[in-house]
Design brief:
The complex is a heterodimer of chains A (438) and B (257). Chain A is globular and about 70 Å long. In chain A, the strands form 2 sheets. In chain A, strands 1, 4, 5, 7, 8, 10, 12, 14, 16, 18 and 20 form an 11-stranded mixed sheet that branches. Among the domains of chain A are: 236 residues, no CATH class; 47 residues. Chain A has 11 helices and 21 strands. With 438 residues, chain A is an alpha/beta fold. By secondary structure, chain B is an alpha/beta fold. In chain B, the strands form 3 sheets. Chain B has a 6-stranded mixed sheet, sandwiched between helices. In chain B, strands 2-1-4-5 form a 4-stranded antiparallel sheet. Chain B has a two-stranded antiparallel ribbon with strand order 7-8. In chain B, a hairpin with a 2-residue loop joins β4 and β5. The chains are: A alpha/beta (438), B alpha/beta (257). The interface between A and B is medium-sized, with 28 and 37 residues.
Chain lengths: 438, 257
């Protein structure tokens, strides 16, 4: 049976299992219908021109994981941000693991979507926010919506500052068949509230796994959301991340994406403005090699005046890896005094690596500052010689230049232990111990 | 008693070098002893910067004939960093901007890589700090500068001063200053020249490549050479520089004919 058919019949089985209310049932039914009509994205669509799912979709996947897998803290300790006390919402094969987690309801809610979807006390929040910003006609997002039942639920009420960063971890392991995971995160940050979140998907063995995740983030007026995606998964893991961010007036939302691992990674990152004086920050560093593929597909929709967006994506591509950057900025006619800045810089360190970069700006207002810059090149030879002349060997000189190249993005990581970890990860990927913190 | 053979700091014998199959150095000869300052002047296109790059080991250049001998050792086959470890320093005419690497971290890495190559331990942090403070004061470099990205947004003069700061930190045996005076106003020139003069010793040698005689008023050379068409065609004392300033290079061309 082809994968699409399998997923459709799995949905029917899934619906029977899940104890669901009327509204959610309708929501899911509409969503599966979208997937049924549209099927998987193909290369013929502009949005998927450079990322083909064909090879991946030839595999047989199961949306039903084996019953509870036993993993201990020792198996996963190294993936958490050490030296920092954090809240943790941990899932294994899509199932919540209370032992590894550290949730709370003390002032803020850091817990499970399944609870939020079933408990009456959250009904109003769910009605207000759930599935309100995620795309209703994009096929993979809809597929996730159809199966959405579990993930992180984070609610930071008005004026509250989350006292610790929150780590959302999705582990996968020891499944008999290839797993198709569909995590669903719902994050609500109230007026003047603040939160820092780190999200990570990690396979614990070499099994083929595909994660099609959807994250909805709502930043109310003057809220601050600082989000970090750490993508350093095994080479058999694949990730399609669909993140939708709704921002109200005066809010600041920043997403840093670090893509170092995985086989195929597609990051769909969308920011929508619903007020003035909003700031959106999108930053990323990609360091890949071998046959890895990373596709950053971003959208910032400036719909109101006086808002700012700042995008800075850096990529280093070795081996025969492939990278894509498609950055869309829409500026509506009324969005005067928009300040939108987009920068994408890429370095190819091997002859066989490929990058496709496509900045896309559609600007309908006339009093705006919009700039975009895109570069694809090799390491600067004269810079290399300069470093060598000062006694720095060629290998270290290359690593230093590549490291410095990513510095603008690393510099804005606001969690010191995370910044330190990313620094070390990059140094390791570049094959060098630089001995100092740039 | 046997006389002790005095090794030159640098001996260049019949050096021929090309870039992209075009021969730029056509049989250059030069001998420099420790403790000496040699100036190299010449018209545009004579090969002055090529000379500097070739000694430093820039890979774009191919040495097709001749020798480059540093303290008795032929360094022709050595990579730029290996030559640096042996004490070669090039003050670049156009220092490269390296955003994301601070001046301090850059020089720390440079010093420690050289020490590593020599089998030494890394310089202790407090010693490094002291050295940085000392040398930056000597060159009147504000401490704030040191935490800026290397050469990024620096004026021409600031870049050159930063080059000499690095020279002071690395204490090379052979320093080649490639048009260090270009882009400097009188005050900057004085500070840079002062810095260089304080680094002169009986154990090192300096090659000053310059277009203008003015720098040589401050960094007084022991010898002046004229580089023309890829060769050294005339050598003399510091008065030669004054003569060139007055008469230009044409009279030398006529002399050669």
């Amino acid at each position: 049976m082809a994968l699409k058919e399998k997923l459709l019949s799995s949905f029917m089985a899934f619906e029977e299992r899940v104890n669901v209310d009327e509204e959610l049932h309708d929501l899911r039914s509409s969503a599966i219908k979208v997937f049924e009509d549209k099927g998987f994205p193909s290369k013929k669509e502009e949005a998927w021109k450079y990322t083909s799912l064909n090879a991946l979709l030839k595999n047989d996947f199961s949306v039903f994981p084996k019953s509870e897998v036993n993993i201990g803290i020792a198996d996963v300790k190294r993936f958490f941000i050490d030296e920092t006390d954090t809240y943790k919402v941990v899932f294994v094969n899509g199932v919540f693991n209370s032992f590894l987690s550290s949730t709370t309801h003390d002032g803020i809610d850091v817990c499970l979507l399944s609870s939020a979807l079933s408990k009456p006390k959250y009904k109003e929040i769910i009605d207000t926010y759930f599935n309100r910003i995620a795309s209703k006609d994009e096929t993979l997002t809809s597929l996730n919506t159809a199966f959405a039942c579990e993930g992180a639920f984070i609610n930071i009420p008005k004026n509250k500052v989350a006292d610790k960063p929150i780590e959302i971890m999705y582990f996968s392991t020891k499944n008999d068949s290839h797993l198709w995971l569909h995590p669903r995160n719902l994050i609500i940050v109230g007026e003047h509230a603040q939160v820092q979140i780190i999200e990570r998907h990690q396979s614990l063995d070499n099994d083929l796994v595909l994660t099609n995740s959807v994250t909805e983030i709502f930043a109310e007026k003057n809220a601050f959301v600082d989000y970090y995606k750490l993508q350093n998964d095994e080479l058999e893991a694949n990730l399609i991340d669909n993140t939708y961010i709704s921002q109200q007036a005066g809010s600041h939302a920043a997403v840093h994406t670090f893509s170092f691992g995985g086989n195929l990674t597609r990051n769909n990152l969308n920011f929508y403005h619903f007020g003035e004086y909003i700031e959106s920050t999108l930053k990323g560093i990609t360091v890949i090699e071998g046959s890895q593929h990373v596709d950053h597909y971003t959208l910032v929709h400036h719909a109101h005046p006086n808002c700012e967006s700042h995008q800075d994506y850096k990529g280093i591509f070795g081996g025969k890896s492939t990278g894509v950057f498609n950055g869309k900025i829409y500026v509506d006619k009324i969005a005067q005094k928009t300040n939108a800045f987009q920068q994408n810089n890429n370095i190819l360190i091997s002859d066989k690596a490929t990058i496709n970069a496509k900045p896309q700006l559609e600007i309908f207002a006339d009093d705006v500052k919009c700039s975009h810059g895109c570069t694809i090149g090799q390491l600067d030879e004269s810079a290399l010689f300069y470093l060598q002349q000062r006694g720095i060997p060629k290998k270290e000189a290359k690593a230093l230049l590549m490291y410095a190249f990513g510095n603008d993005v690393i510099a804005t990581i606001k969690i010191p232990s995370l910044q330190h970890r990313i620094t070390k990860l990059i140094a390791k990927k570049l094959g060098v111990d630089l001995g100092f913190n740039l | 008693m046997e006389p002790i053979l005095e090794l030159n700091m640098l001996t260049i014998k019949n050096l021929h070098a090309s870039v992209e199959d075009k021969e730029i150095l056509k049989g250059l000869n030069l001998e420099i002893k420790a403790g000496e300052v040699h100036a190299i002047m010449g018209p545009n296109g004579s090969g002055k910067s090529t000379f500097a790059s070739v000694i430093a080991g820039k890979e774009d250049y191919e040495v097709t004939e001749g020798d480059i001998i540093l303290e008795g050792e032929d360094i022709k086959e050595l990579a730029p960093e290996e030559r640096a470890h042996k004490g070669v320093f090039l003050s670049f005419q156009y220092p490269v901007e390296i955003p994301g690497v601070t001046v301090t971290n850059f020089i720390k890495t440079a010093i420690n890589e050289t020490r590593k190559a020599k089998g030494l331990e890394e310089m202790p942090a407090n010693e490094m700090l002291k050295l940085i403070r000392e040398k930056s004061e000597m060159l009147e470099i504000d401490r704030k500068f040191l935490s800026r990205s290397l050469n990024e947004g620096f004026s021409g003069g600031e870049k050159k001063r930063n080059e000499i700061f690095q020279m002071a930190m690395l204490e090379p045996k052979l320093a080649i200053l490639d048009e260090t005076d270009s882009g400097l106003d009188i005050d900057a020139l004085r500070i840079v020249a002062n810095g260089v003069n304080r680094l002169r010793s009986k154990d090192n040698a300096i090659i000053v490549i310059t277009h203008y005689q003015r720098l040589l008023d401050y960094i007084v050379p022991d010898y002046v050479h004229v580089l023309m068409n890829g060769k050294i065609v005339k050598s003399g004392g510091k008065e030669l520089a004054l003569e060139l300033e007055e008469k230009g290079y044409d009279w030398i061309k006529e002399e050669l004919v």
